[in-house]
Amino acid sequence: MTRARRRPGRRSHVQAVVPFVFVAAVGMSALTVAPAGGASTSGVPAIQIPLATSIHSSAGTWVTLPMGDLSQPLNTFWQLFFQPTGTTSWSNKVEATAVATNGGLVLASAANQPFVVGVRPSNLLHFSPLISTDDGGHSWSPGLLRTGLATSPSALSTGLTGQTLALVGDGLGAQVRTSTGGLSKWGTLTTARQLASGSGGKACGLDSLTAVASWAGRAIVGADCSRPGVVGIFAEQAGSWNLDPIALSGSLRRDRVEVLALEQTTDGLIAVLGISEKAGTAVVAAWTTNTTRWIISPALTLASSHHLVSFGPADGSSLFVVSASSSGSMRLAVVDDPGAPWRQLPHPPSNTATVAFSPTSPTIDAFAVHNSTMTVWALGSGSSDWVKSQVVHVPIEFGSSH
Amino acid sequence: MPGMGTGLRTNDPTIVSAFHTALLHQGLIVLLILAVAGISLNVLRTLQFRRAARGGDGNQGVLRPDDPPEPPARRLLRVSFGLIWVIDGILQGQSSMPLGMVPQVVQPTTAASPTWVQHLVNAGATVWSYHPVQAAAAAVWIQIGIGLWLLVVPRGMWSRAGGLVSVGWGLLVWVFGESFGGIFAPGLTWLFGAPGAVLFYCAAGALIALPGRAWATPRLGRTVLRVLGVFFVGMALLQAWPGRGFWSGQTRSGGVGTLTGMVQQMAQTPQPRTLSSWVTSFAAFDASHGWGVNLFVVLALAGIGAAFLTARPRVVRVALLALVVLCLADWMLIEDFGFLGGVGTDPNSMIPQALVCIAGYLALTRPVVVTNAGVVPIVRAPVGVGSWRQRLITSPGYAFRFVAASAAIGVVLVGGIPMAVAAANPNADPILATAVDGTPNAVNFPAPAFTLVDQHDRPVSLTDLRGKTVALTFLDPVCTSDCPVIAQEFRQADQMLGALSKKVEFVAIDANPLYTAPDYLLAFDDQENLSRISNWAYLTGPLTQLKPIWNNYGILIGYSPGGAMIAHGELAYVISPTGQMRYSLDSDPGAGTSATRSSFAATLADAITRTANGS
Q: Do the Cβ atoms of A142 and B183 come within 8 Å?
């Protein structure tokens, strides 16, 4: 056997290049680490606006909440429960929507006006069917929004004059549409870009629109402002849009404020403000009777482990807020009057999706959801215990939206 | 991700049956090729002996001396990788390969890779998903063909060509089947086969393709070992890199470390229970001794790499022994052998890389061969003279290599040609639609009449459409899943028809009892980009008009509880220009992937074409 002699001073190009290639590949691979998800670039996570809520109409109280497998969007089906005025039993009316409700439902009502349900787009459906009833859900009329409703419990609003407003699209592509004849003909009232380019929008640093209200014959639009301490509530007046001056107090001026909802009450309008703080989320209620003067509640600060589950009108001019911790414990807080402090009610049962205040009695119903079973728990006046009052099994058709 | 998979179950009987049939038919062709090769070889041998007996070759009745034996390193690579290719080809014959390859093998690796890798791999995955039977059968025969090629053609130009083909196919598999071996995905580690098993096939193929003179000195072995040395040092560095989760078996938050997580996932793969228990035990061991395990791996890889870099036979021999032990342990405890469960398509990376390392050592220590005539460098061996035709009848070795290589190429082409033809068709194989919905039913009776209004509120009746072939279906304008998919299938079928499209009307009838106004149909058309299609009509009317039409066409419609969409039958009909019902098709899109969508469109277009042509 012979062996070739090694030639001194000669090195193959492959031998020279390979180490560099490997070092580069190793370095690149080492740096290819999955990014950690979660916080936004500012370090303060955006507030997730919950859609679950309750609302009163002239015929009774309506509740919308998600059921099914909540970990899978296409197996999460939003329901529409109704309790006629003067009764204590809830029934499911969601079948009337005649469409898959995976994207969520948005409710709107006003005294002596039809109750309106908007179906948010989901999966391959990109627009929003609407239905309305003025007889407590016995008969329904369809309507249509050619663009999908925004993800907000205040994306639809019906005023006492019959004008209905809808918030469609998202970000700076959002638009405020106004009904021009029934619920199928709509015109554009304003857009996020128009508002952002105005003086009020510039002062607020408008990022997106979050809520609409047709109130006292005027259109009110809520927004998410990037400028700290600025509350983005725009009111229409003689064709122009003005940023309503709402002064927050103390440390809240340093934080970003998002209008989570605009709730109509018997006495006026409540703006639900979400304030993103590094320590968690604070909720502030702002009341007005004329949009020129707002009364601010103290802040309801949620612990960092808590998140918003639901909010909505309670009774009279009050507002409720339901929150939950990551461990599942629930909180229910109510603010009764303009400027009054928040009042903690007995902890609602676990898995409470929302609550409904009876307009005719001092009873509060909490709706706890587990998969396809919804349990109603009632809290009587002065009581500290929730009592199971009704169990509803909903035949969820899992997989039907795939 | 578009193109990724078909959404069908991997053991779908229609696809599995078609796959087996394709393998059987192609197997018969392969047998025919082998028979022809055998006969050809026999004929050539006869000619050679007759010529030799006549002394016509100038060698006084003696056949020409053949080429000398090949170097041991090359023989090791050729035989072992030939066998591995054959095994891989056989593994590709598993029933679940046509539908399981993309979602179970390609998709998991690609999912963690950068977007550009996903786009590139998706292009290949789409071809597979659209033609799963042809693709899976092609993979079987191409790999068996390459394996046979390497096994039976030991030297010369044809053998080197086999090496090159092995490199070419290996690179295709590495890019599209292994997503570049996952080198662009997070969590890259030698323990789990980085940088991809097939890259070692390519390395082996490239070495086999080298000219004979490359094997005559230890230089090739030295180069191979040093490249491998750098590779192992690089892998050690990668393994030691902080922040990648390999230094701990458990995280502070109670989760598991990267390696433990990977091994636990591997233990979930369907496999023999004993093997699963070994893998699970190792996962538990790593969970409690993660730091120690990683330190051992880092030191072992770095030590082996450093030893290879010296290219000193004694040092390399020890390192090689350590590497083989390490590879076998990893193959058993971490890679779970790779092929005993799930849809394994190869025995993973450990065996191939160990073989390449051994070949490097042999090339270093045994660079030349000893023949009966003494020490003969391979490059100087006589390789025959004259044209290839003359050599066929003068050299038995050349004749065998020529015939064997031709037969192997034939086997490769048995899979490759149908796949190439299928890949040239941008539409998915109609067998996918058959798997989802069955075959179209040929019928012949007058289509029930209807008069409704279209999306523009203009009256339309079936009688108005006489003279045109009508493709009819029932769609819910606010449906969130199937109806938009069916509408796109109709749109695609329209495009497939080409010039015939002018003689066809695509018609849908509203299948929602609440949303019956033309506004909803227009919104649906806008959503699905159907507004500009001139031969598209979406019809509706009052419920009193719609209900009898639904009944006449066998479409059951009802409200669904619990927030589900309106339930309605998913059928499509093809009506002849004379108003005769010719075909009824189940139009349920199933999982509604782009593959099944395209497949149904092709089936519908075929039924329309047959009806329009009167067949």
A: no
**Pair of tokens at residue B279:** 């893998």
Closest chain B residue to A121, measured at CA: B480
Alpha-carbon distance values, A200 to A169, A170, A195 (Å): 21, 19, 7
Among B222, B237, B517, select the one facing A26 at the smallest CB separation: B237
**ipTM of model:** 0.87
Q: Which two tokens stand for residue A311?
A: 């909010």
CATH number of the domain that A298 lies in? 2.130.10.10
- Classify A31 in phi/psi space as left (phi over 0), alpha (psi -120 to 50) or beta: alpha
Closest CA in chain A for residue B516 = A142
A246-275 residue pLDDT tens = 888 877 888 899 999 999 887 789 999 999
- State the Cα–Cα distance between residues B26 and B19, nearest whole angstrom: 10
Chain A residue with CA closest to B566: the answer is: A98
User: What's the number of domains chain A is made of?
Assistant: 1
| pLDDT tens profile B586-612 | 988 876 678 888 899 999 999 999 999
d(CA A115, CA B487): 33
Which of A33, A69, A95, A99 is best to mutate for the B interface (most B CBs within 10 A)? A99
Q: How far apart are CA A245 and CA A262, in angstroms?
A: 16
pLDDT at B453: 98
Closest CA to A279 of A254, A309, A249, A315: A254
In a domain, A39, yes or no: no
- Domains belonging to chain B, first-starting first, are 23-185+197-210+385-425 (no CATH), 217-367 (no CATH), 431-612 (3.40.30.10)
Model confidence pLDDT, tens digit, residues A208-237: 999 999 988 889 999 999 999 999 999 998
